[in-house]
Amino acid sequence: MFQTLTPQGLSTGHAPFVEEARSRGDLYISQPYDLYSEENHEVWRALYQRIRPRWERYANPSFLRGIEVLELPSDRIPRLSEINQRLQPLTGFQAKPVSGYVPGFLFFDCLRRREFPTTITIRPPDRMDYLPEPDIFHDIAGHVPMHTQKAFADTLVRFGDCAHTAVELTAGVRDRQERARRLTNIVKAMSRFFWFTVEFGLMRGPRGACAYGSGLLSSCSELAHAIDSPEVQRYPLQMEWVVNQVAEIDRYQPLLFIVDSFDHLFGLVDRLERWMREGKLDNVAPGLPDIQESDLRSFMDAA
Question: What architecture does CATH give domain 16-302?
């Protein structure tokens, strides 16, 4: 089915265009659409065709509407310019192409500006089932359809507000070590909350739980596992639990949290910010995710 990889292409780990941008220090880039190889498009087609029936069965209705409104192509990698042309009038959001990992504060600040950092490379054909880093299928097919839903889009903006609140609250701490400690705890709490909602969130639906988290919606196997498997524990989202819950990236999620609606989710992010202001996130449970130095530095430097 798949052709031999040619020098041209934008496969994860094999994309000279992206590697050159990184070497120049360019985080925000363009989508050089003509560089996609036929193999890249074949990977998109295979991923889409395999997961589409799962979306129909397990996805939140807002996600399914988003797929149709965006006219997400099934036979080729989307042009971000076309996606943005349809998305921006709905909620103001735009997919913003990036060369790789976006440090924490910069990522949340993009959300605040209604910009979603989007990877332009696509996974190679020998890694269809699992890739530890995002690719364009995860970002565009997993995340962006949800950005057509106003209450969800507004919730992402509130996450961005929380990042600015974290900087504001810690900027006056003179002891740099103490400031770093507090920020590490706050960012860990924010990351966990984001992980168990935006990435792996479930929502109550007319037929039971359905998925709205992009990590589920871009994974054919885990999407079904999250809803059907008796091995998965599913609980109503409780703030004190989520911000202290270890988040693991290299296995199916054994524990998932359910919200009632997107308005409910927005209210929970409001509460997250209140807890931040009250100091309740200054000492969360240790454990994953580890906060990378680049993430912490991005918050420290934002002040």
Answer: Orthogonal Bundle (1.10)
The mean pLDDT value for 183-210 works out to 95
Q: Give the predicted TM-score (pTM) of the model.
A: 0.94
What DSSP designation does 145 have?
G
pLDDT at 128: 79
274: amino acid identity, one letter: R
Nearest to 18 by CA among 144, 116, 135: 135
- The C-alpha angle with vertex 10 and arms to 8 and 12, in degrees rounded to 5, equals 130
User: Has residue 248 got a pLDDT over 90?
Assistant: no
H or E element, residue 57: helix 38-58
Rounded CA separation 243/275 (Å): 11
Taking the C-alpha atoms of residue 119 and residue 151, their distance in angstroms, rounded to an integer, is: 24
Enumerate the domain spans of the chain. Answer: 16-302
Q: What angle do the packed helices 293-302 and 150-170 form, to 10 degrees?
A: 80
Residue among 68, 113, 108, 106 at smallest CA distance from 91: 113
**Distance (Å, whole) CA 99 – CA 166:** 26
CA distance 131 to 75: 21
Which amino acid is located at 159 in the chain?
A: F
Report residue 136 as tokens: 């364009």
Q: Which of 215, 209, 78, 86 is nearest to 148 (CA)?
A: 86
In degrees and rounded to multiples of 5, residue 229 shows phi and psi of -70, 135
pLDDT tens digits, 266-276: 999 999 999 99
Which of 259, 262, 268 minimizes the C-alpha distance to 204? 259
